[in-house]
Amino acid sequence: MRLMPSAHVDSFCRDNLPPTETWPEFRFDIPDVEYADRLNCAVELLDRVIERHGADRPCLLSPAGERWTYGDLRRTANQVARVLVEELGIVPGNRVLLRGPNNPWLVACWFGVLRAGAVVVTTMPLLRPGELSTVHEIARIDVALCDHRFTDDLRASDLGSSTPIVTYGGDADDDLTRRIDAYDGAFDPIETSADDVALLAFTSGTTGHPKATMHFHRDVLANADTFSKHVLRPTPDDVFTGTPPLAFTFGLGGLVVFPLHVGASTLLIEKATPDELADHIAAHDVTICFTAPTAYRAMLQAGRTERLASLRRCVSAGEHLPAATWHAFHDATGVRIIDGIGSTEMLHIFISTADDDIRPGSTGRPIPGFQAIIVDHTGNELPAGEVGRLAVKGPTGCRYLADERQTAYVQNGWNLTGDTFRTDEDGYFWYEARSDDMIVSSGYNIGGPEVEEALLTHDDVVECAVVGVPDEARGQLVKAYVVLAPDTVGDETKLKELQEFAKQQIAPYKYPRAIEFIEALPRTSTGKVQRFRLREQV
Fold first, then answer.
1. How many helices (H) and strands (E) does the chain have?
2. Is residue 303 packed enough to be buried (19+ CB in 10 Å), middle (13-18) or exposed (0-12)?
3. What are the start-end ranges of the H helices in 334-420?
4. 432 has a pLDDT exceeding 90
5. Distance between CA 464 and CA 449 in Å, rounded?
6. How far apart are CA 446 and CA 432, in angstroms?
């Protein structure tokens, strides 16, 4: 693919793109994803919305009562951009690390970096010094903007003495919130190329060492013009909220890009239990929620489903949505959860359905603009009903920053997501397992999520994860790690009860022959279960 002339003065990102022959095939088959050659996604998400709806429209909200308009956000982002350029010497193409919980100031920094033509590297606020050092080792950070409450681990990391760390949200004289007062809200955004890198998003580490995925300015808009426009279908009157951090591309899309793309508002929550999330939804009349399957299940278990009465859309991703959870939530609220699968490499969701097209338990069908097939280990397409590897292509795709794993993720022009699926005769995709989570026991292929779904229908099971463990007789044994409801005793009697229960839900050969009761499942900072850590324990 031929790249357009870059606006980046610092060519680090262009220099570290993978060789073009290792890129996936990009498809721009629908008019929605045809963009101008010069494009800054921060301008499209702010200035164009202000042109349509006015600057006084509500934009960013917080549980504490903060209310930023679109005009407030643009003015503050421009002031941040001026500090970056005029005081910190940032030039287009430099990488700026962001660290902090979801709140309006993090969003203002995100927009300020992009308007300055720099590249955003948003990180999880829970990352430790070693993990932050890895981010710097890969991305070569030029400046870090950090919430004043989260500086300790950042200062303890190896960013190098020449990398400035600027805090925001505090009361220090050199805090960003004070430094911007020296500037008015005027700034001419850099006219970047549509294929200049806008984001470096790091994979969440479910399989070990993270990778930096490289996303262009057009990619940020492409997810809004595919999944959001054709499946989610938000309106300017919607109020969004959710729990995924903005460093998780599921959160960035659902809590920033999708609402701002249509002129809606978004309630940014720094931290919330599922019970607290339900309270926030009720207090702010939230209409669209993005969170994980476990949170939807937990909100039901907390009771008082009347707090969810304002919801009209719920989106689930990050983990497979069990049919039992879908039905339970629908029965209690009338809301049909939109399931979807996406990846950091693809930026957001590429298979999903909504409303009457939903088949509970199925992930859905490819959304407009994307193609998906199931392939065998040689890359040949498999017919409906056969289990194989998920392969996807569309207007977004995998570009790892200087990482040899590029050729493992991209093969024959397709993005291989690492998931095992099958399709039915109607073209719906049904999740079986992560490819490295497929269990082969006594010659049978057993998908861990199917066993998990069976166990989750038991009233005493709050969470569970199923993995294969070595077994001399069977090759692998199905083992379940189970989190029980409060005050439930995890003894031998309960173990046998769950095993017998599973046998009634799925074929008996799939039942968990080993069960271990634990207090919590190991998860990444994005909430994904780290099954590889469970296997390592064995």
1. 17, 25
2. exposed
3. 406-409
4. no
5. 9
6. 8
Helix/strand/coil for 365: strand
Over range 49-57, report the average pLDDT.
96
CB 74 within 8 A of CB 82: no
Nearest to 320, CA basis, from 354, 288, 289, 360: 360
- Pair of tokens at residue 413: 């022009």
Query: What's the one-letter identity of residue 381?
Result: E
Instruction: Give the Cα separation of 371 and 367 in Å (integer).
Output: 8
Q: How far is CA 132 from CA 128, 211, 475, in A?
A: 6, 13, 39
| Mean pLDDT, rounded, of the chain | 93
**CA angle, 508 then 512 then 516, to 5°:** 160
376 secondary structure, DSSP code: -
State the pLDDT at residue 441.
Answer: 78
pLDDT digits (tens, 9 = 90+) for 334-344: 999 999 999 99
pLDDT at residue number 523? 85
pLDDT band for position 90 (cuts 50, 70, 90): very high
DSSP string, 474-526: TEEEEEEEEEEPTT---SHHHHHHHHHHHHHHS-GGGS-SEEEE-S---B-TT
Task: Quote the CA–CA distance of 505 and 439 in Å, as a whole number.
Answer: 18
Strand partners, 366: 351
- Please answer whether residues 283 and 239 qualify as being in contact, where contact means their C-beta atoms are separated by less than 8 angstroms: no
Number of CB atoms found within 10 A of residue 86's CB:
12
Instruction: Give the start-end residues of each E strand in 231-275.
Output: 239-242, 265-267
d(CA 353, CA 337): 10
Question: Looking at residue 442, what is its pLDDT?
Answer: 65
Amino acid identity for residue 273 in this structure: T
* Average pLDDT estimate for 412-438: 89
The pLDDT score that the predictor gives to residue 206 is 43
Residues 360 and 327 sit within 8 Å (Cβ to Cβ) = yes
Distance CA 390, CA 109 (A): 36
**251 falls in which pLDDT band (50, 70, 90)?**
very high
- Strand, coil or helix: 395: coil
Q: What are phi and psi of 366, to 5 degrees?
A: -55, 135
373's CB contacts (< 8 A; 6+ apart) are: 381, 382, 391, 414
Per-residue burial over 94-115, b if 16 or more Cβ lie within 10 Å, else e, is bbbbbbbbbbbbbbbbbbbbbb
370: pLDDT confidence band, cut at 50, 70 and 90?
Answer: very high
420 touches 445 (CB < 8 A): no
The DSSP letter of residue 378 is: T
Amino acid at residue number 262: V
Helix (H) or strand (E) holding 98: strand 95-99
pLDDT at 435 over 60: yes
Residue 313's beta-bridge partner residues?
Answer: 288
Q: Are strands 313-316 and 288-291 parallel, antiparallel or unpaired?
A: parallel
Q: Are 217 and 194 in contact (CB under 8 A)?
A: yes
